[in-house]
Every structure is written in C-alpha cells, then in structure tokens.
Amino acid sequence: MSNNTCFEILSFFGASAHQVSNLSKRRSYPLCFTAWSYVSGSVRLSRLHAVLSECLKSTRVMVCCQLVPVMLRIWFMTVLDSEDSVYLAQLIPVIIERSGILVAVPELLKDVHKIFADQIVALMKAYPSMVTIQKVDIREFIQTTANMAGRVEIYCNMVYAVGEFASPTYCVECTSETIGQFYESLEVVAYELLGQLSSQEHDSSIPKVLSTIVAALAKLASRCQDLIPRAILCLTKVVKQQNVIMVNPTTKNFIVQKAASLIALLKNPDTASTILNPDPEIYTARWHQNNTSMSTILRGIDRFVKE
C-alpha cells in the first residue's frame, strides 16, 4: 500500500470522525471520551450508535465502511507475522467483544464478521495454546446460545476451533479436565438446540450450528474416553429426534447420518482416536505417503472388512 493511499484512507477516517463529533455536539453527547470508554459502557455505546445512525448514508461513512474490512485484513496479516503468542492470545476475547458491538451497517457486519471468523481459526491454528489460555472467555462465548444471533459464522468457527485444537497433541497444557469443561459447555448447547428444532419457529442457522457442535463433541470425547458414553448418548438423542426435528428432509438426513456415523466411530475408541485426532502433519505430504498415515490405515481397515 502506497503512502498516498494511506493518507487518503486516514483523511476519510478523520473526516468521518469530525462529522460524528459535530453530530454529537448537537445532541450534547460528550464524545470527547476515548473510544475505549464508549466500548466499556452499554449506555454510552448506545448513544454513539444513535449518533452514527444519523449519518449512515453519508458518503464518507459509507467509504469508511468499505475501507475498514480492507484495513482489518492487513492488520491481522501483520500481527500474525509478529509471532508474539502472548499478544495474539489477547485477540480472542477482543474479537468476541467487538463482533457484538459493531454499527448496524449490513455490508460492514457481513465483511467484518467473515474476517473475524476466519482469523479465529487462523490464530488458533498458528498458536493452539490459545484454546487453553483463553478457555474462560471461549467457554463463556460458546455456552450461550444468544451469542449466535448475528454471529453464526464466528460461533461455528469458534466451536470448530475448540473441537480441533483442544487437544494435548497441539498443546500439552490441554488436560483431560480442560477437554471435559469444553465438552460440558457444548453438550448443554446441543440439547438446547435440539429442543429448539422441535419447534416450527426456530432460527434457520441452528442446523448448521448443531452439525458443527456434534462433530466437536465427538472429537473431544475421542480424546477422553470417560466422555465417550456421554457423547454416544447425546448423539443417539440427535438420531432419535429425527421425527420431531422441523427442518427440510435434506438437512435432517445430513445431521442424522452425521450423528450416526460419529456414534459408530465412538463405539470403537481406538479407531475414533485415529480418525478424529489425526497427527498435525496431516497437512504435509508425509501424511499421505507414510505407512502410519490416515489413508493407509483406512485402506487396511477396508481390506480387513471385506475379508
């Protein structure tokens, strides 16, 4: 990005801030407080949003809404290159908080939420220890179904990241106790969503979220055998509820078949552990060539079953 482009972007942000400041003076809102002080108080935040609502159609504001996602992507690329795990770990609670207090501009919300969702996985893939370091904030986020509202993609990616990286394979500090805590948080949500699906008036995103959760539950259970009976019980309920789940047949069949497949896997703990918890080197060519690779194991199982 050239210096001229940076100056142009800065001027747009400055002009928009000046416009908001003038509006706040007319409303007698003290916007001289820092932006952080507004984020920390729901009343002041609502006032700021009220002021912004008056100028959402302003050309300057619309341009800023287009620039913010671009700058946000560049910022995340820069901080990921820093390799400062302590600093990066602090981004998870910030993403959770900021994703819920954005100004209600549909295009801005869609773009920023997409960036946040992608970066959650990118951050935890680069530094899996974040799952353990920020487990309190993550658990608080995933165990509250209200957090799905307007943030389905972020919620699903957070659940996926927990299922994928809450493992001693990625982080030695991730104990059985930690895995059990994450499991309990997701299990409660799974039962709650099943109850909601029995009603005709439910959020259309619930099937997607439930599908992500059942996969995460199976992965977590495969790392802690004490959880396997509970996981099988939960997944069995998903299968048995197929007659009362009020979704289209295609979606219903997908969820039920996925749950049934996971049940079959979990009934064979050794197989489940191998398939649901592949070595991190799955992303390398060695994983597909070595005698201990997933593809080799599956071919061996296939031959054994046929014989």
Automatic annotation (TrEMBL):
Q: Can you name a GO cellular component term?
A: AP-5 adaptor complex
Membrane-spanning segments: none
AP-5 complex subunit zeta-1 C-terminal TPR domain residues: 42-303
In Swiss-Prot or TrEMBL terms, this protein is called: Adaptor-related protein complex 5, zeta 1 subunit
Write down the species: Plakobranchus ocellatus
